[in-house]
Design goal:
Length: about 260
């Protein structure tokens, strides 16, 4: 009887905490100033790490370790470790990254370039995708650049496109990739080629290691994706400082020669 009452209380506390954890965060896609974005990042990380710890403990008590396979339990089980923060980072990806696109070539130009024929129907293809740099220190920033095209049979002028950015982390203990999160950006696009640009902010507390950044484009039931690997290491901060100092020294040397 007491056990059942305790379980009921735990459920109420857990549900209340979960809904309270997300109440103050702006909806994904909301235009934010730099100050608002920084605030949202801190709030989101704090709430999801706390949510993972409380949710994991509560669900572990309610369901038992054999059935503790829910996401919040996984976060709770990882609390205190590197994976806990990585999972929270993935949950907050909308506040740490952005992706925008704009047209660079119309339907006719794109069709000539790729040799498109109406019989091919709907086409969605990522032409290229890159990260700069491919190695970064915690607290740094990574730029994304890519391009893709969407084509359709005659009669179609524009299509609805979903641009997705995804992040995964290589767990060295389990020796496997863990999906951290994904954010969709939905647009209506004219047929042709688009250039995509964006940024990933890397939190200063993010665990070092290997990450994968994926760009996916979906339209009219057709999709394509491309993945690049990113390495996060503290030593990159020192190499960056050294390179900056070296470039400054060379600049001063040239100025002296002039």
């Amino acid at each position: 009887m007491k056990s059942g009452f305790a379980r009921s209380i735990a459920v109420v506390v857990l549900i209340t905490f979960i809904f309270g954890a997300c109440a103050s965060l702006p909806p994904s896609g909301t235009a934010l100033t730099e100050e608002e974005r920084a605030s949202a990042q801190k709030t989101c990380i704090a709430k999801y790490t706390a949510l993972g710890a409380v949710g994991g403990a509560a669900l572990g008590y309610l369901l038992g370790s054999k059935n503790a396979k829910l996401e919040t339990t996984a976060i709770g089980a990882a609390a205190g470790g590197a994976l806990a923060f990585a999972i929270a980072y993935g949950k907050c990806l909308a506040y740490y990254s952005n992706l925008t696109s704009f047209p660079v070539a119309g339907r006719r130009e794109t069709a000539q370039k790729i040799g498109y024929k109406p019989s091919q129907g709907y086409l969605t293809k990522i032409e290229n995708f890159s990260l700069n740099p491919q190695g970064v220190a915690p607290g740094g920033k990574v730029k994304m650049n890519g391009s893709y095209y969407v084509m359709a049979p005659p009669g179609e002028q524009e299509v609805k496109v979903t641009e997705t950015r995804m992040l995964s982390y290589y767990d060295p203990e389990k020796k496997e990739w863990t999906d951290l999160g994904a954010v969709d950006n939905e647009i209506t696009s004219a047929l042709g080629t688009r250039k995509a640009e964006g940024n990933f902010d890397i939190p200063k507390d993010v665990p070092e290691g290997r990450y994968r950044v994926t760009m996916k484009v979906s339209a009219q039931g057709k999709e394509d994706e491309m993945t690049k690997e990113l390495t996060v290491k503290k030593e990159y901060a020192f190499s960056g400082v050294f390179l900056s100092a070296k470039l400054q020294s060379l600049s001063e040397d040239f100025a002296t020669l002039e």
